[in-house]
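User: Run a structure prediction on this.
Assistant: Running it now.
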Amino acid sequence: MDFDIVIIGGGLVGASLACALRNSGLRLALIEGQPLPRLDSGWDSRIYAFTPGNVDFLHECGAWQRLDASRIQQVEEMRVFGDTGSRLNFSAYEIGAPELAFILESRLLQHALWQGLETQDNLTLLHPAQCADLTVQEDAARLRLQDGREIRARLVVGADGRDSWVRHQAVMPEAPTPYHQHGVVANFSISKAHRGIAYQWFQPDGILALLPLPGKRISIVWSVSPEQSAELLALTHEAFCARVSEASNHTLGELQVITPPAAFALRVLNLAHLAKPRLALIGDAAHNVHPLSGQGVNLGLRDVRELAKVLSQRGALDCGDISLLRRYEKARQGDIMSMQLTTDTLKNLFVNDNPLLRTLRNAGLDATNRIVPLKKMLVRHALN
């Protein structure tokens, strides 16, 4: 099998790249090893906040309009609280925008993307399939699958997640740095309406974010120590609801668990390069950030947008040419570094017992809240 581009990983990022290249004239293959998530009436614990810019992109890909609108929640306001009463509010109304973000379950978007992939003329789906070996030569990259099939491609794109097989095969030596925190996620029904408001509490022992879901429902991401994570997961549902309700100052009334809590280790990954000859990384394969900003998936989709643009405007260049891939890398480094620096700084600033830092961080929230032009600039940047 001979292709221009082989994308390894059929999650949100890999699938959206295949969709974005549907009219490129390139011969594509997409390799996905895991079964696609089942669609049922239950709620997915993997919830993402998508920026308006990325929603526009997903609409251009044909995926967004396939979604059930009743499962999408708009975020119109965000309220951020420090640990001594300080606060910072962001509002779509302040900048004349209809919303700040859209909240959606991962599996619903993945299903919508794959609906388009199944009828895409320039795409071959290899699913389920597992990669066994990758060799990069001057004229092409060669993949061998575990079932013995061999594939030749001018470019291999790793979209295979935070523990990327492609990144390992490419011998990109940088290792993730653990945050020594776990992200605890769960969904709840609530007794008080959220009114499209997202909340975040910075506390000395962790960071709690509440994201609105359609109806009287919310999703949480609670960044805590591994010991606290184990303690929270060991609680009964009633006790867990009580802990979340207490940590969020009972803002949304009584809580009831919809999806049981789960946890994952948090880390940061900063690669010196996102590309090598005939290889490129996108999404979590290329970078990891702290979830306090809710921007991990948005970074990945902006990778897709840039790589698709570079490949579509390649002219006579081979799509695996390193000079072409360096354009993608250079265009993405600033956005990635900025997000990693911001989330890293906020995490280290707030999850800290130093009294001086405590005073400074809370004063900083209040000061930012009073500087309307600064708030507007931050919000507009986050809409891309």
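The mean pLDDT is 92.
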